[in-house]
Amino acid sequence: MQDTSTSAAVAAAQPGRLKRLWRWFFSPTARYAWGLIAIVAFAGGVLFWGGFNWAMEMTNNEQFCISCHEMKENVYLEYRNTVHYSNRTGVRASCPDCHVPKEWSHKVVRKIQASNEVLHKILGTIGTPEKFNAHRIDLAKSVWRGMKTTDSRECRNCHKFDHMEYAVQEPRASKLHQTAFAQGKTCIDCHQGIAHKLPPKAQEGYRDMLEHIDEVGPVQRMIDFLQDADVAKAKAAR
């Protein structure tokens, strides 16, 4: 009887769960309270995440894209003379709309890829119009492959296949669109050069890209995986 009374008294004297948590939160470690450590860590995480996303958006606009003369003096000038820059509706597709994925995970992968472009900026690989044109076919094939293996994902941010009204399209365009989609084709199969000047022998270059679309190294295979690229489907729909 005495043991039972003693146990009950000890249990009554113990603080509740919330009170124990409160004491732990403000109890000191060697120098600081756990609560202070948690608050500082949370604030640091918020600042890091905010800074990271701010940097992502600062590098995701047209002005940043043409801040280097390689882009401003070559492809940007070409793009300004296309329907994607100026049209009757006033809807403009800027550089990141076509070349940077909307999905956050895919966007991060694309930004990491861009570090290679920074390297070649430093090396001056395409630092003059002559150098740029010498590499134009390889640059185009790289972009074409990315669009082909992702089913022209960035094009479809605006141009939804299943939202097209074939009846109001030009008869030739309507027929070609329906045939292409039935065959598993994608935008880039027909619309290379829609925003930029085509390199010499572009058709041969595109066919060569398709023929070797799955012949890539381990780094590109990893990028394909992270970008949800369907290389097998792209190869089958040649």
Fill in the keyword field for this structure.
238 residues; mainly alpha; 13 helices
Question: Would you kindly provide a written description of the structure presented here, covering whatever features stand out?
Answer:
With 238 residues, the chain is an all-alpha fold. Helix content is 63%, strand content 0%. The protein contains 13 helices and no strands. Helix 8 (129-149) crosses helix 11 (202-211). It is elongated, with a radius of gyration of 28 Å. It starts with a helix and ends with a helix. Belongs to the NapC/NirT/NrfH family. Keywords: Cell membrane, Electron transport, Heme, Iron, Membrane, Metal-binding, Transmembrane, Transmembrane helix, Transport. It is found in: Cell membrane. The chain crosses the membrane at residues 32-52. It comes from Bradyrhizobium ottawaense.
